[in-house]
């Protein structure tokens, strides 16, 4: 009887261990899928944004490369995005927790690692890109792709002017006025003052001689 009970308890312990282990694995997998930053795909919205829409994106930064997917050279003010959400040529206004990175960006790049609602901002400095990390941002769609009809020109112009006003431009220091240069003083040598022209020297003896 004791052997039967001990065998039954051992069987129950094994079954419970297997069940608990399975539940833990299921919980971890489900929790990972639900995490906002789980994986690189981000949160994919099946509905395409429209001009004027204000959306929440996950933002990162990159610094490498010389040419974008559109064929243009990299520069500040461009970003990479999922082409199915923000096609190349789209214009967006970005709002972050740091005013330094706020402003209008043009989508000129894309890539396999930029999937879903992810906006990858280009920065010249790689250390700055690393410090930027990953953060939530607000994206206002101003234009989708290169289609001029899918844009709001007045809003784009207004935001560009606001960004220009927000920039603090320090004027370069004024050049010092040129120092006054005194004209050189012409000095007359004593030999020149005492010298007599040959015509004068020739005329002097002639005038001193008596007439015949």
Description:
The protein is of the alpha/beta class and 212 residues long. Among the domains are: 31 residues; 113 residues, Barwin-like endoglucanases. 33% of the residues lie in helices and 18% in strands. The protein contains five helices and six strands. The chain has a six-stranded mixed β-barrel. The chain is elongated and about 125 Å long. The termini are far apart. The N terminus is likely disordered.
Quote the distance from N terminus to C terminus: 181 Å
Number of strands: 6
* Major β-sheet profile: 6 strands, mixed, barrel
| CATH first level of the domain at 54-166 | Mainly Beta
SSE pattern, N- to C-terminal: HEEEEEHEHHH
The CATH H-level superfamily of the domain at 54-166 is RlpA-like domain
Name the poorly predicted regions: 1-5, 26-46, 190-199, 201-208
Helical run tally: 5
The CATH topology of the domain at 54-166 corresponds to Barwin-like endoglucanases
Rg (CA only): 42 Å
Q: Kindly report the spatial arrangement of strands forming the biggest sheet.
A: 1-5-2-4-3-6
Task: Describe the SSE topology.
Elements: H1 2-34, E1 54-62, E2 78-81, E3 91-95, E4 103-109, E5 118-122, H2 126-132, E6 135-143, H3 153-166, H4 190-194, H5 198-208
Parallel strand pairs: 1-5, 2-4
Antiparallel strand pairs: 1-6, 2-5, 3-4, 3-6
Describe the structure using short key phrases:
212 residues, alpha/beta, Barwin-like endoglucanases, 6-stranded mixed beta barrel, elongated, disordered N terminus
Compact overview of the structure:
By secondary structure, the chain is of the alpha/beta class.
């Amino acid at each position: 009887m004791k052997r039967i009970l001990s065998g039954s308890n051992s069987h129950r312990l094994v079954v419970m261990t297997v069940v608990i282990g399975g539940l833990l694995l299921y919980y971890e997998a489900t929790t990972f899928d639900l995490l906002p930053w789980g994986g690189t795909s981000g949160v994919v919205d099946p509905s395409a944004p429209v001009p004027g829409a204000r959306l929440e994106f996950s933002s990162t930064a990159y610094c490498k490369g010389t040419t974008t997917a559109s064929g243009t050279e990299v520069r500040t003010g461009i970003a990479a995005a999922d082409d199915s959400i923000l096609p190349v040529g789209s214009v967006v206004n970005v709002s972050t927790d740091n005013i330094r990175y706020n402003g209008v960006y043009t989508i000129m790049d894309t890539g396999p690692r930029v999937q879903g609602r992810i906006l990858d901002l280009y920065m010249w400095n790689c250390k700055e890109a690393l410090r930027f990390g990953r953060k939530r941002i607000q994206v206002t769609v101003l234009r989708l792709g290169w289609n001029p009809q899918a844009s709001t020109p007045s809003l784009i112009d207004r935001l560009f002017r606001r960004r220009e006003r927000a920039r603090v431009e320090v004027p370069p220091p004024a050049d010092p006025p040129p120092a006054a240069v005194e004209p050189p003083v012409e000095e007359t040598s004593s030999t020149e003052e005492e010298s007599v022209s040959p015509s004068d020297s020739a005329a002097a003896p002639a005038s001193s001689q008596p007439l015949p």
